[in-house]
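REQUEST FORM: STRUCTURE PREDICTION
Request ID: SP-0412
Submitted by: Lab K.M.
Chain count: 1
Length (residues): 390
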Amino acid sequence: MVSTPGDAIGPWHRWATTWLRRDRSLAYPVLLALAAIDSAGYSVIAPTLPTLAERYDAGPALIGALASTFPLAMMIGFAAAGRLVRAGRTRTTLLAALALAALGAVLFATAPGLPALFVARGLMGLGSGGLWIGVTFATLAYWPGQEYLCMSRIYAAYSAGALLGPLLGAIGGTSAPFLIYALLLALIAPATAALPAPANRFNSDRAALRTRGFWIAAIGIMLAILATGALDGILPLHFAERLSQTGIGLTYLAVGALIAISSAAAGHQPPARMLITGAIAITTGLTIAGATTTYHPWAAGLLLIGLGAGAAQTGATGLLLDAVPTSHIVTAMIVWSQLGILGYLAGPALGGLLAQHLGYAAIGLLPATALALLALVKGRRQSPGASPKQ
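STATUS: Completed
RESULT:
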């Protein structure tokens, strides 16, 4: 009889299923691991971009387009995963997402040319979109009444995963980081398959999309993730003037630690205050990092970006949970996530164009525009008839 991969993991899968279903709280480490691994997929590409740019003689605009393929595909993944979640198939969502992300990572590592890299990064983005939606709604379903506490830990895991991506990228080359990432996805798959099926208790309410509170939270998350997109997708080309691939990876490891610390600390402060403070820090930090070519100003800019991104992300999340009841959050969460990833798309796509034509300092115009839009929406009066909790 021919053996299959399923035969090899069969005993482990049966043991894990029994273990997880005996005590649902034991499923939490699996969700935390999924969150961390998903987050690593965002930034694993950053240290490899200068090498890819040199190999294919590509400028900031083309490399920015490559980096933006991931968030563009994520937006599609959010919508597809949302349909599965509404049908009560959260666990299926997670497993399909893992398979897509792993396939994309292997293709990236073995890609024969630039077009294949775009396809590979797109597959990874589709998988990442499914992982975010699956992890989020599994957490909300498993622990009703403790959503904010449990989600704050999921965000902490995402921040920790942001450290892993640059660390993988610092290994060197353009193949090994992605092959190791694919291995991590494969290792978490059996435990994911053993998760208990979450109850489907979520509904959609489009009325939430008409509230000022939702849009403040949405613009806030867009601004926060825009900083990460610019950091991962375009600034490595600027830093490569003085730093090696390993140096960029280790530098980004430190920035990831700052984001994690800032995200956790911001949870003890009012969300609106953290969002505004973070937005100002991001705008200043990106401008300083782009306008200078020496280590000390870069360090100051990256410090502001790291602290600002963590504070703004946590603040935007708190504002969303305040604005929309969890039981009717499906549509709001998907659209909010898509708008956030639109920021991750704009970072490298628009940032690459700005850097190529106006210089790297012009990247700071992106968060400045988002900050102005945030002030405009915050200053508008609430439209009649739209009143989920604000």
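NOTES: The first helix runs from residue 5 to 22.
Reviewed by: T.R.
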